[in-house]
Amino acid sequence: MNKVILASFLVFSSFIVHAQDQKWSVEANYPLVANSNLQNDFNGVLDLGIKYRFANLGPVILGVGFNAAYLKNFNKFTYGSASGQDLESDYKAKQFLLQPKLFAELPIPGLSALRPQIGIGYSFSIVDIYYDNGDQFFSDNTNTEGGLNLNLGLSYDISQRFFVQVQYDYINLNLEGESEINGQTSTYDFKEKTGFLKPGVGFRF
Prior knowledge:
Elements: H1 2-18, E1 24-29, E2 32-36, E3 43-57, E4 60-80, E5 86-105, E6 114-132, E7 138-157, E8 162-181, E9 184-204
Antiparallel strand pairs: 1-3, 1-9, 2-9, 3-4, 4-5, 5-6, 6-7, 7-8, 8-9
């Protein structure tokens, strides 16, 4: 069994070292809310991505990519109410972003380690918010929305395989639907424009 594991490891290592075309890359980023036209109450946790480069058009490399991000904000505390009793407030907000996109890398002549990138795609936003203030106010809603996603990025190769990068995502979501608070349903219709700054690391293969 140990010989089989060793042989498999050597074959995999040989493939990684001798692969000629690095068309694929994987990345891990930390999503930070850079700006929003609303009071964005989500904190970044993790953003994972994969890219595939399918065409080399002279100075431009075209590819497709997919990112999935998780953001959250949990807040639980005890406070004094007007009745003199201590009440417990429980707030749990989670957001998942699914982002397919088409991108172009623009290598800089003489600076091959630097790789500017521009991309366009669509973001699906899944938001789950639970809030109970402990005093007759309760809300539990899950909504899925979507909107245009523009991406700007810059990566720097620290070796043939590994790189560091920073990206900026602009997302324009059209939020339209219904929410339920204390058993009463209300409708909403507005736009949320949010920017995410995502520093991260990656691996090409």
